[in-house]
Amino acid sequence: MAESGFPQAVLFDLDGTLLDSAPDMLATANAMLAERERAPITLEALRPVVSKGSRAMVAVAFPELGQEARDALVPKFLDRYEALIGQHAVLFDGVAGMLDALEAAGCAWGIVTNKPEYLARLILPQLGWETRCAVLIGGDTLAQRKPHPLPLLAAAERMGIDPGTCIYVGDDERDIVAANAAGMASVAALWGYRLDADDPMSWGAEVMIEQPEALQHADAWPAARR
Questions:
Q1: Is 169 helix (H, G, I), strand (E, B) or coil?
Q2: Does residue 152 sit in helix, strand or coil?
């Protein structure tokens, strides 16, 4: 831990943890449905699966299609999303203050997401993060993606830190699985996207946090593993 009590470094998931991207995803899905003269879906229907990725969102939008047909729509979904990325997405309440508090304490932070890297990189300048974010690893940056620990380990290496001194924050079970496998302490972000059947208590995170505002305070963070 830094002398301030904050971690030395923090890595975050993106969608569902820092960024409420569900409105962008909804606009994407409904644009595709409109092109096919189908009724729109609701945010309530799509929101729980946003952290599960594009295939899960296409499945919600087109439940009548078989797996092969849905997989064929994924590139179209990503292309449509790229065209409108950031138009509706917003930071979760408290995220801006949390990042300010980390930086004021001398804590470096970065992003490890399963979103394709080229899409994640489009978001950074929209948020003014292109110089603030110390590292960005996307789902296609390396040979493995979360829940494999490789992206977290690579991010720590690029930041020049021991993985055991870093904390990982994410809203999905695979985030916590990846952190545990990488030897990082973790925070389960309960404000993110979850299915009703998801049980964060079973994920194995050091702490579970209800809202980002809590992480503006040093005592909310778990101790690093070393």
A1: strand
A2: helix
Give mean pLDDT, residues 18-46: 97
Please identify which of the residues 13, 15, 24, 171 carries the catalytic annotation: 13
Q: Fill in the amino acid letter for 161.
A: I
The yes-or-no verdict on residue 3 having pLDDT over 70 is no
> Please, which residues have CB within 8 angstroms of residue 142's CB and are 6 or more apart in sequence?
150, 151, 154
Owner of token pair 């489009």: 122
Residue identified by tokens 């994924």 is 74
* Of residues 91, 158, 154, the one with CA closest to residue 128: 91
pTM for the model: 0.95
Express each pLDDT in 136-192 by its tens digit. 999 999 999 999 999 999 999 999 999 999 999 999 999 999 999 999 999 999 999
Tokens coding 26: 């909804």
Q: What is the pLDDT of residue 32?
A: 97
| Alpha-carbon dihedral 213, 149, 157, 114, rounded to 10 degrees | -60
Q: Is 13 annotated as catalytic?
A: yes
In which residue are the tokens 């960024």 written? Answer: 19
Kindly state the tokens that stand for 133: 């974010």
- Does residue 113 contact residue 139 with C-beta atoms inside 8 Å? yes
